Amino acid sequence: MRLKDQFRFVRQNMKKNKTRVFMTILATAMGCAFLIVLASVGFGLQKSVVDEVTSRRVVTQIDVHGKETGNNGGFRQLKIKDVQGFEKIKNVKAVTRRQMLSQESTFSIGNYQEGTETYVTHFPSEVKAGFELSKGRLPKSKDEIIVGYDFPLNLVSKDAGDDIYDKHGQIKKGFRYNGNLIGKNLKLPVKQFFDGKEQTKIISLTVVGISKKPTKEWNQDRSVFISEDMLKEIEVFAKTPKGIVLEPDSKVNQKDLEQQRDTFDEVKIYAKNMEAVQGIVDTLKKQNYATYSVVNELKEVNMMFTIVKAGLIFIGTIAILIASIGIYNTMTMAVTERAPDIGIMKAIGANPKVIKRIFLLESSYIGLIGAVIGTAVSYLISYTVNFAIPLIIKQAFGQKTPENLIFSDIPLILPIICVIICYVVTIISGYRPALRATKVDVLKAMRREI
Known about the structure:
By secondary structure, this protein is an alpha+beta fold. It has helices spanning about 5-15, 20-55, 80-85, 125-130, 230-240, 255-260, 275-285, 295-335, 340-345, 350-395, 415-440, 440-445, and strands at about 60-70, 75, 90-100, 105-110, 110-115, 120, 135, 145, 155, 185-195, 195-210, 225, 265-270, 290-295.
């Protein structure tokens, strides 16, 4: 019997018992849909977490925290020689370095003021790494500065009381500075104690640029970026590295103090592409540098979710195994009902392998049709879940779900895994009835009761 005839024979037999076959296909489809939807939760949450991690951090960024010294596990801060060495590593795009001004940085303009962090940075390397402005230009002289995007929104009146925030956590318009900061002068008081007396120097700085808006609303940028030359001027006045304030009663080891001179508080390496990150990290580790990259975090996240997804797929497979009982029952009844047909096929010389193949084809038909229907239903359920659950949470609990949170995601590999599992299970379920069909006695099968 040709393969084409075998397929036609299978379809004809399935049509004879439409209701039973339909219910078996339905059970298989429900099992496949359960597997895919259940596992899609793991895929969806993984995608949400990975997107969140990569949105907070540049995937090509490597943080270098220091270099290990000796065998005692201690680390020293990085200096310009370290930075120059990083720049020579293969596939390094840029190396940014920042120093934090060790002063209580309170900037003021007229009757408005704001306390924030002040960074000393190398602007050429920042631009090379992707630093962008929303307004203005980069500094050209030592008294020119750049402020963070949210800095102007937090300049508050000195006369403001405690009730200055609205329901969204923003400073009310009546209390904050509303003018254009570009070209305006900010006053920065720098202080130091000499012979037990506090002395203050007022430094005038001109705002020439405002940084680009952060990608996340909660990630406010209120920093102020000053030049390396301005830091030197502050250090000349304070007579300490980074303008460290020495209180009258403080006991500071001068040697420890000088070790902080010309050191960087933040050093970030930017690779040319994501594929190059691991190679750079490995190179740095060989040189005893302490590093961190989002790629390492993603590896841990992906490993955790791989375990979760494997567990969910295993649980979903149980549903298909339950459906396989129906397939086994359907095929067993089919063998019993078609005993006369099997007897005729054997009488005219049909090979037992052909008979077995016919019944395996029928069980495969049932399994694959069920898998296809289950996959289509699972995509519909996944879309409905992603649309409906945020609305339900908002209505039931009065809370808004995080932006771009994905509850269910069905990548192509998931339906493929489901179809493979379903096909294997249906073949196993149909194998014993198919084997039984090859052992049907010809005379008994062809006997007719009168």
